[in-house]
Amino acid sequence: MPEQNEWETKAANILKAELKLKGVSYAQLAELIGDKEPNVRNKLSRGKFSAAYMLQCMSAIEATEVRL
Q1: Where are the domains of the chain?
Q2: Which of 11, 13, 58, 64 is 20 to 30 A from 43 in CA distance terms?
Q3: pLDDT at 5
């Protein structure tokens, strides 16, 4: 089973890929979820965010499916 860091990396990569597919920048995402761009950038670069945060982001960019 992958280590915690591997799961964090996978979650961050999934969210980054969805942002790219939707053509949404970190600044645009921050605006959509009511956060600041540096906070979004840091969370995605570290992979340190909750499942609720990921769902919030995915909902904000209108991503309806996620492939694992």
Answers
A1: 4-60
A2: 64
A3: 87
Calpha distance 14→19 (Å, rounded)? 9
d(CA 23, CA 6): 25
Enter the CATH code of domain 4-60.
Answer: 1.10.260
* CB contact at 8 A, 49 and 11: yes
Buried b (16+ CB within 10 A) or exposed e, 11-48: bbebbeebbeeeebebebbbebeebeeeebeebbeebe
pLDDT in tens, the chain (68 residues): 556 689 999 999 999 999 999 999 999 999 999 999 999 999 999 999 999 999 999 999 999 888 88
* Rounded Cα–Cα distance for residues 33 and 44 (Å): 14
